[in-house]
């Protein structure tokens, strides 16, 4: 039921929950929606150099995910049901005083056209047993939408809801989440330059 609630909230029309601007800096825009349970739905947006193939290559380069995903220690693809579907295990190195988290997700990449790519992400907890030393993030829903604006420029939009679990007060978890999404976008823009547009 909790997972269904998160998915329903994730799909809530904009007219029902208005976006509030959190930050605009270095070409990165961050917004939030305050949900009834105290969690935040976050959105980040930027325009940057790159192409769809480079962005997909960045996502699939899990060995280097910790170089741009904020507070991520490691990312492992457990299995790939198809070329565009992946079951992924992620470990987070959380800042003190928050305990380390981990997460198992199912992601699917959609090429909706030759100028747009979408990625949908949801929890897939049954795919991997819980591990000692980590608190499992069991409720998560996220999406990426990448549009090719011209030959070497893309727009990137990310939206996510996640319950960090454990006994983190909402104000602390929300603060860390907002900081993480900005940091991730900042490092993503720099990292994308390493992936050529003929990568895939």
UniProtKB/TrEMBL annotation:
Q: Which InterPro entries match?
A: START-like_dom_sf, START_dom_prot, START_lipid-bd_dom, START_lipid_transfer
Is Nucleotide-binding among this UniProt entry's keywords?
A: no
State if Glycoprotein is listed as a keyword. Answer: no
Q: Ranges for the START domain? A: 58-197
Alphabetic keyword roster: Signal
Residues annotated as signal peptide? 1-16
Coiled-coil stretches noted in the UniProt entry, renumbered to this chain: none
Question: Which PANTHER family does UniProt cross-reference here?
Answer: PHOSPHATIDYLCHOLINE TRANSFER PROTEIN, START DOMAIN-CONTAINING PROTEIN
Name-wise, this protein is: START domain-containing protein
Native organism is Pseudoalteromonas spongiae
